[in-house]
Amino acid sequence: MLYPIIHLQAEDIEVAISHNTQYGEEYYSFVNGQNTTQGGTHLGAFREGIVKTLREFYKKEFDSRDVQTSVVAAISLKVEEPVFESQTKTKLGSQNMGPEGVSIRAFVSDFLKTNLNNFLHKNKEIADAILRKILQSERERKEIADIKKIANQRAKKANIHNKKLRDCRAHLTDGKKVDDEQKLGSTIFITEGDSASGSITKARNVQTQAVFSLRGKPLNCYGMTKKVVYQNEELNLLQHALDIEDGIENLRYNRVVIATDADVDGMHIRLLLLTFFLQFFPDLVKMGHLYILDTPLFRVRDKQKTYYCYSEQENKRLSTN
Question: What is the pTM of this model?
C-alpha cells in the first residue's frame, strides 16, 4: 500500500480505500454481509464516487483511468429487500436502498463526497500520496500513448500472419455460434521455442487448443512500467494474442497455460512469464485463468507398464521397485 488505508463508516455503509503499486483495480463488495463477487449497482456507484470526489477535491478533471489504476478498495452496504441478478446472490441489481429509499448511486456518491472529502482535508500526507499516484499514472499513460500506437500497428501487421500463434477455432469471447463447453475449454499453451511447440501442436485439439511460441527467454519485467510491454515485440504480440491490452474482459482463452520444459531454463522462463502476468495483468491470475503445465522429469518402464515421475525421489523409488 502507498498510504494507510482510508476507513470510512456510517449507519448503512462502510468503505476502505487505498492504492498500491500493481496495475489494474481490485474491489471487494458486500451487501448485508453477503460477498457480491460480481459487484453490481453499489460497486458501480462506488467506483464512480471515488473518481468524482477526487476530481472535486483536487479541482482537476483527471482521466478516470488515472484515478482508478492501482486502487484497492472495499464497500459494504445495508440495503432493504435487496434484488440480486443471479440466484447465487453475487451481483446486486437493486437501484434503491429500499422500496421507497434513496437511489444507491446517490447514497454512495453523497457519502463519499462528504466523508472522503473531509478525510482528505484532515490528512494532507495521504491526500498528497494519492495525488502523486494519480499524476504518476497520468504520466505513464501519456508516455505509453505514442509507443502504443506504433506497437499496435506492428502487432496488427504481425497478426495477419502471426507465426508465433497457432490459433484454435473456439474462443472465450465467441458469441452464440460456439457452445459454452467449448468456450470454457478454450486454452492457449505458451511454449519455449518452435521445437517445444511442435509436439504440443501435433497433439492438441485444434477446436479448443492454441499454441504460442516464445523465442528464448522473455524480458524480466519486475519493477518496470507498462511502457516496456509495448517496446518489447514479443510481450506485445503475447498480449495481443490474448487480447488483454485493455483488461481481461476480452480475454480470448479461458485457460492460459505456461508450458515450459522441465529443466532449469524452463523454470526460469516460467518465473519470467509469471512476473509478466503478475506485474501487468494481475486479474488474469486472480480470476483463475493462469495455469502451469507440470511436466514429468523421468520415465520408468517395466515389462507391463510405463510410469512418469515428477521428482528424483519418485524416480528412485520406482526404479528400485
Answer: 0.66
